[in-house]
Write a structure and sequence with these properties.
The complex is a heterodimer.
Chain A lengths: L15 H19 L3 H37 L4 H49 L2 H7 L1 H8 L1 H12 L1 H21 L1 H48 L1 H6 L3 H54 L4 H43 L20 E9 L5 E10 L4 E6 L5 H8 L7 E6 L2 E2 L5 H7 E5 L9 H6 L7 H10 L3 H6 L17 H15 L3 E5 L7 H15 L3 E5 L11 E6 L2 E6 L1 H6 L3 H12 L2
Parallel strand pairs in A: 3-8, 3-9, 6-7, 7-8
Antiparallel strand pairs in A: 1-2, 1-4, 4-5, 9-10
Helix pairs in contact in A: 1-11, 2-3, 2-7, 2-11, 3-6, 5-6, 5-8, 6-11, 7-8, 7-11, 8-10, 8-11, 10-11, 15-17
Chain B lengths: L5 H6 L9 H34 L3 H50 L2 H6 L2 H43 L1 H11 L1 H36 L1 H6 L3 H54 L4 H42 L21 E8 L12 E8 L4 E5 L6 H8 L7 E6 L2 E2 L5 H7 E4 L8 E2 H5 L8 H10 L15 E2 L8 H14 L4 E5 L7 H17 L1 E5 L3 H4 L4 E6 L2 E6 L1 H7 L1 H7 L14
Parallel strand pairs in B: 3-10, 3-11, 6-9, 9-10
Antiparallel strand pairs in B: 1-2, 1-4, 4-5, 7-8, 11-12
Helix pairs in contact in B: 2-3, 2-5, 2-10, 3-5, 5-6, 5-7, 5-10, 6-9, 7-9, 7-10, 9-10, 14-15
Classes of the chains: A alpha/beta, B alpha/beta.
Chain lengths: 601, 590
């Protein structure tokens, strides 16, 4: 279906049906984020209404002063004047208090909305499968969570409450005007006609253009993030100038669409002022004429003018709000698209509990193909008894990593089932699955924070002793101690100061401390030097005791700790036996092993 | 550096806004004029009220209405003019700042990027810059225009009646004190909130880049909790800001009304005394109503100005950073690149290394002849990667020098140097672009043959089988490719650059034995003609090199042939060999 999830999200001009669908989706999201705070929204609305009602009484009281207070004072009765002025000051004081209170209250509500959506979006992107992340790219996910959220923040800051308050203020003013002088109100009613057409024009034009700004802004962010993440390669291959050219173009695209929407507002806003001022002039003409006829008091005329003026005062706020609403709406269109994405590897609805964990893996009639239909692993069966250590070898692209991803459920098989201790992985709760099966990959990503924090990611809340034991077990303890602050050393962005080998050691310690039933090592030792690898292998001896392990390694030294070797080629398992048997034989593995032995000298 | 105040800090942005200034000034004038027209309206009403009381005439009414209408239209036109004048240049200034910041970030050395969380950079280039734009084209203009309007409004008030005006003015004076106090308090909180927004962006970035690790360990929820904590912190700061603004807003909206209340009593008293006409009081009231918004708005314009100030501060924190790996003022050139690379007593330490720690590279002496290839061996963390990074000035030597064909590399432009020396990193960064653009990054104008040749050497034939062949767009960081595939493309990229010196950082680590052997065979032909420095972890990689240099405790402790070192040097055996002296596999079981 078109416009499903993030599909077609860069499309600007939508047909009617798409427009309807995407509108429904973002309105639904808006409803969802507002629902939890709706009671408080009513309270804050009540606050605003109170303060607006108090403010609206202002011109009325002033009219009273001129029409009643002054004559009374002239007659020597000052009490009436004091009373009215006292009422005016009190009204303003209470209006001020309610407004100040409202501002704080509304900030809380707004921040709760922001917090709720931030967390929801973050959690949702974490749930989405690797497949999604690979195609959608990290820069876009970041753009959705930063600049799009900023648009929503601007909307909330510009005050939905104030918009409603403004509308109410206008309503109150209109009612007050009707009471004071109904015929002046009719003049104001006529002014609604140009108002309507102007607003419609603004709405249609901004919708398309704001959509463009969201797309342009995401592109800027994607490019920026990619440059900064890959800054070494950028520098080493002198990509700076070319990047600058690209970025310049993107900045200019963003600038011009942004300028466009700002200009639209630049016409809309004075348009409103103009309609307002013309209305005031007509109210004056009509009122003045009647004063001349003696049909109207001067005080009433003044309050009519004040009301007519006040009526258009909140228009500017409403216009601004409407402007940010249009902007936030395009952002919500994109955000709701991401939220609409379903993980292609969904969590079990009614998970089967896993107990006791043994680590027996079974593949039954498993086949794996990409969504484009390309078969990576043709149908196969495989049984890995609990506690077995398997070495998976073969040329790059033979399907080893795909196997690992099936076991760790980064992907689900296209056909057949993968079972752990008799339970289909799809039936396991995410918690059970991730406690039971842990995968360490070649890409040893470190998060900002200390070394200790990075290790304890495998077991949140682990004591320093546990962390150190894990590091000792994989041979990382010594180098960690040599870092500036030992275990408290900040690993910096992307582990800038920690070498690739050291990063792998840290992520090994992370796996060690996680203490899983099934451990998958996908090229997890590729960057280690030989002494490091020896240490890790020594650690593995302890680590793998009583666990099921699947080790993918190009360096066949790992094979010495495996009970069983599976050789893969073009997605098929061509050899499967104990290492000694295979080495002694004449097959592929025997040759590989010989070549590897020769490479050691 | 001396700490600048709000005005001083904001003034720093003006050199970047020069082109926009004339229009911003004109826009401010338009805003002032617009306000003046609005201020003029009560004057006509005042006369009208008095004359309606006196001797009404229809002509006079029409005249007054025409004047009000005219002023009203002019006001709207001035608003139109202000927006038209100011808004477009504002976007140009924002775009200019954005480009400047981006260029500066690319210019800053890798050490800077190691230190700065990327989310902090991102939040500067997005949120902060649009903040500055809005301030320049909206906040600044209105602040100046509104203050001017308030001043003129007071003069008009004085012209109506000096007693009323003085009362009004004195009553308003506490607002100044409040404004100044607010500026001080609000600044720190505004800054904190922007920094926390940056932290949040960092958390988002890491959660996305590290999504595989989080999935593999099932730590998505854990990260979400951590992120939620960061988001809560930001929420707290935002609430604190709201509290401050609400207090200011309270005073700015009520005090003018208090003042007006007092004026009303005095005004009526004056009317009763016959000192003024009712029209004067009506006009006075109308003017204070016109002034209501400019006075009200000072509160939020002030907070906006301070937000802009902290955004400017954050912008200049990057711009003011000295690029300590810069191009020389009078760059030299290498007339005939041969690839003669010499390290002379090279010392290197990271700027934040503890003082009691010796230099990571503590006096490196190494000479690589043109066309020679040298393998660099040492245990993890011995400084091999750092040494290779020095050769392209990704980091700078702490002391000593590196010479390429007799020229100190600091005397070359970085562009030139990096054209001569190409690198293949261990973790291969690929950009979201086609395979061929990624491979030809170092030499975009290469021919198809050169491209094919580089691909062949790196055994990257798999790329031809991708959906669109070499035109296939690969994801950022090449994530949909396997580690081995990415590494081969990175290698192809280094080869395709046809440099005089190749620096390869463990270039074959992710390759299987068969592929590795094929790459090595092919690489040998390239290495015959090219100088190379190869970081190696495995004997098979070492075989590529003519000589081996052993790095230990920050020094090159031995240089020689692989077989010689294997026989003579125990540390070398420890680092590179899985076999013991007798040629047997070292058992890992004991």
């Amino acid at each position: 279906m078109s416009m499903q999830g993030v599909k077609d999200e860069e499309k600007i001009h939508l047909n009617k049906e798409e427009q309807k669908r995407i509108r429904a989706r973002s309105m639904k999201l808006l409803g969802e984020i507002i629902r939890p705070v709706r009671n408080r929204l009513f309270i804050s609305l009540a606050l605003v209404i109170t303060s607006q009602a108090l403010r609206v009484s202002g011109p009325y009281l002033i009219a009273l002063i001129i029409d009643k207070g002054v004559p009374a004072a002239k007659a020597g009765d000052w009490n009436l004047l004091y009373l009215i002025v006292g009422g005016y000051v009190l009204a303003s004081l209470f209006a001020g208090i309610t407004i100040a209170f409202f501002l704080r209250f509304a900030a809380k509500v707004n921040q709760d909305i922001m917090f709720g959506l931030r967390k929801r979006l973050f959690a949702h992107t974490q749930k989405l499968s690797i497949e999604f992340h690979e195609t959608y790219t990290s820069g876009r996910v970041i753009a959705r969570q930063t600049s799009d959220m900023d648009s929503l923040k601007e909307l909330l800051d510009s005050g939905g409450n104030e918009m409603i308050a403004g509308l109410l203020f206008m309503t109150f003013t209109a009612i007050a005007l009707v009471t004071v002088d109904a015929s002046s109100f009719l003049i104001m009613l006529v002014s609604f006609i140009p108002l309507f057409f102007l607003t419609r024009w603004f709405q249609v034009n901004t919708r398309v253009n704001y959509r463009k700004t969201r797309v342009a802004s995401a592109k800027l962010i994607v490019h920026f993030v990619e440059t900064m993440t890959g800054i070494r390669a950028v520098k080493a291959f002198r990509k700076e100038k070319r990047n600058e050219e690209t970025y310049k173009g993107l900045v200019e695209d963003y600038r011009s669409v942004n300028a466009k929407v700002i200009q639209l507002f630049g016409i809309y806003d004075p348009g409103l002022i103009m309609i307002g001022n013309i209305t005031v002039a007509f109210v004056l003409l009509w009122g003045g004429w009647r004063v001349m006829q003696g049909d109207l008091g001067i005080g009433v005329l003044i309050s009519c003018i004040l009301y007519a003026r006040s009526f258009y005062e909140p228009m500017e706020n409403i216009a601004m709000f409407y402007n940010s609403y249009q902007s936030a709406n395009s952002a919500l269109e994109k955000i709701s698209g991401v939220l609409e994405e379903e993980p292609s590897v969904p969590q079990a609805q009614n998970p089967t509990p896993l107990a006791p964990k043994k680590g027996h893996l079974q593949f039954t009639n498993v086949e794996f193909a990409y969504s484009n239909g390309k078969v990576v692993l043709p149908k196969f069966d495989l049984d890995i008894p609990a506690g077995q250590t398997i070495a998976l070898v073969g040329t790059t692209g033979a399907g080893k990593s795909t196997m690992a991803k099936l076991i760790s459920r980064f992907y689900d098989p296209s056909k057949g089932a993968v079972e752990l201790d008799g339970v289909n992985l799809k039936e396991l709760s995410d918690d059970d699955l991730r406690t039971a099966i842990v995968m360490v990959t070649q890409e040893a990503y470190l998060f900002s924070g200390s070394v200790a924090e990075n290790i304890s990611l495998g077991k949140p809340g682990a004591s320093l002793e546990e962390i150190q034991n894990a590091a000792k077990a994989v041979g990382a303890h010594e180098f960690i101690l040599s870092l500036p602050d030992g275990y408290d050393t900040d690993v910096n962005k992307r582990g800038g100061r920690v070498s690739a080998g050291q990063r792998q050691l840290i992520s090994f310690a992370r796996a060690f401390i996680a203490d899983p039933t099934v451990l998958i090592l996908d090229e997890a030792t590729s960057s280690l030097d030989i002494p490091g690898e020896r240490m890790v292998q020594r650690g593995l001896q302890t680590l793998l005791a009583g666990r099921t392990a699947i080790i993918i390694a190009h360096r066949l030294s790992t094979v010495s700790i495996a009970n069983r070797v599976i050789v893969m080629e073009h997605g098929q398992m061509i050899e499967d036996d104990a290492p000694a048997v295979l080495i002694a034989g004449t097959g592929k593995f025997s040759k590989m092993h010989k070549a590897w032995r020769d490479s050691l000298v | 550096m001396k700490k600048l105040g709000t005005v001083g800090t904001l003034l720093r942005i003006f050199p970047y806004a020069k082109s926009a200034l004339p229009r911003v000034i004109l826009g401010t004038l338009a805003a002032i004029l617009g306000h003046m027209f609005a201020l003029a309206i009560p004057n006509y009403l005042r006369n009208l009220v008095d004359q309606l009381n006196d001797k009404p005439s229809f002509t006079m009414l029409v005249l007054a209405v025409t004047a009000v209408l005219g002023m009203g239209l002019l006001e709207a036109i001035m608003v139109l003019l202000r927006r038209w004048l100011v808004l477009t240049p504002g976007t140009h200034v924002e775009a200019g700042l954005r480009k400047t910041l981006y260029a500066k970030l690319q210019d800053l050395p890798v050490a800077f990027h190691d230190k700065w969380p990327s989310g902090q950079l991102l939040s500067r280039v997005t949120g902060d810059l649009s903040m500055i734009r809005r301030w320049l084209s909206f906040g600044l203009v209105l602040l100046v225009a509104n203050i001017f309007t308030i001043v003129v409004g007071f003069i008009v008030l004085y012209s109506y009646n000096w007693i009323l005006a003085t009362v009004f003015f004195v009553m308003m004076s506490p607002l100044w004190v409040l404004g100044f106090r607010f500026e001080k308090d609000y600044h720190d909180t505004a800054r904190k909130s922007q920094d926390q927004a940056g932290d949040l962006a960092t958390a988002v970035e890491e959660s996305v880049h590290g999504v595989r690790v989080l999935k593999a360990f099932g730590r998505g929820d854990f990260m979400t909790q951590k992120f939620a904590q960061d988001a809560l912190n930001l929420r707290e700061t935002e609430l604190k800001k709201a509290k401050m603004v609400s207090r200011l807003w309270f005073f700015f909206s009520t005090i003018p009304d208090f003042a007006l209340g007092l004026c009303l009593i005095i005004g009526v008293w004056q009317i009763v005394q016959g000192d003024i006409t009712p029209g004067v009081l009506a006009g006075f009231i109308l003017i204070t109503r016109v002034l209501h918004w400019p006075i009200d708005s000072i509160g939020f314009l002030l907070s906006m100005t301070i937000d802009a100030r902290t955004a400017v501060e954050r912008f200049f924190e990057v711009i003011d950073t000295k690029v300590d790996i810069a191009d020389p003022e009078e760059p030299k050139q290498i007339s005939e690149p041969k690839g003669h690379l010499v390290f002379e007593n090279v010392h290197f330490r990271y700027a934040d290394a503890p003082e009691d720690q010796p230099d990571l590279l503590n006096g490196i002496n190494l000479e690589i002849q043109p066309g020679e290839s040298v393998a660099l061996i040492g245990i993890t963390g011995s400084g091999k990667t750092s040494l290779t990074a020095l050769a392209t000035r990704l980091y700078e030597v702490t002391s000593g020098s590196i010479k390429l064909d007799g020229v100190d590399i600091r005397d070359l432009t970085r562009e030139d140097l990096r054209a001569h020396v190409a690198m293949a990193f261990e973790d291969a960064t690929l950009f979201s672009d086609s395979v061929s653009s990624n491979v030809l990054l170092g030499r975009p104008n290469s021919t198809k043959e050169e491209l094919d040749q580089a691909m062949a050497i790196a055994q990257a034939g798999f790329a031809y089988e991708l959906p669109d062949g070499l035109d296939t767009k690969i994801g950022e960081e090449g994530l949909s490719l396997s580690g081995g595939q990415r590494q081969r493309l990175a290698l192809a990229r280094a080869v395709a650059a046809q440099p005089s010196v190749l620096v390869l950082d463990d270039p074959l680590s992710a390759l299987d034995v068969d592929t590795e052997a094929m790459v090595e065979d092919a690489l040998r032909t390239v290495l015959k003609a090219t100088t190379a420095l190869i970081v190696a972890h495995r004997p098979s990689t070492v075989q590529l090199a003519d000589r081996v240099a052993l790095l230990q405790d920050g020094k090159i402790v031995a240089v020689g042939k692989h077989s010689d070192l294997l026989a003579s040097n125990e540390h070398y055996r420890y680092v590179i060999s899985s076999l013991d002296a007798a040629g047997k596999m070292i058992e890992v079981n004991n």
